[in-house]
Amino acid sequence: MLKPSDRILLLLQLKENDLLTSTEIQIISDLSLYLHDCLLILGKGILPGVRGTELQRQLEQLLIKKKSRIHGASFDINVNHRVCHGPPNDSKFRNNDIVTLDLVFEKDGLFADSAWTFICGDRSPENEALLQKAWDVSRRAYCSIRTGGNSLEMKKSVHKELTGTVYELLEEACGHGIGKSMHEPPDFSYSLFNNNDIQWNPGMVLTIEPVIAYRGAKLICSKEKEYYTDNKSPSAYFEHMVAINENGPQCLNIPQIKDQGSIDIFSEII
Q1: Which is nearest to 213 in space by CA: 48, 82, 46, 52?
Q2: This prediction's pTM
């Protein structure tokens, strides 16, 4: 691991025309709130025997009612050791499955992207603990962000949250910019070995999505471009949309994130 004195801090600046206006950020904020509501509605349908394609049809029905609000969407459902980029399929959910719903909405050429992890049916203490820690890590990541700061501060905070636990980050997964496309610069790693750190500047909108699994897990990619843990460890993550404003960061999908404890949030949704 690099010592702080050995690190070359690379502060990547976005061009002025890449930064979003306050009006554009407000549209993305409204999109993020509705997207989060949809994730929680869909999460209630994660029951033993239900198929992923049934959730997809439920999403389609939700969007039919909101044609004026959503112009496009993509939807992934990732179960247990499948981490990301898994399309809905006809496999049935089982008791204690860990299921991550990852959803993207587009309106007027602007994008929102969030994910939420749930447990299907009866849940084991081990899986509840994994989700609890994933939530704590995501909240810690958000709370570490300050306008004019940088991603090194966030990485240190996230790694501190995991110190002494049985979990670690899947460091191959990264956060990214979002706005006029679903995935745009800057990409930023959660790995302390990666010294290309990003400065948080006003006008940026980012996805904050640290993914955790049991220690020793690594990401592998299938020929279908789906990502799995190599040791079949389940993974969990909560992806937040964050706008960097002059007066500080703003969590777009959960505005009250700093004020509400994770236990309270969990009691409402799982």
Answers
A1: 82
A2: 0.88
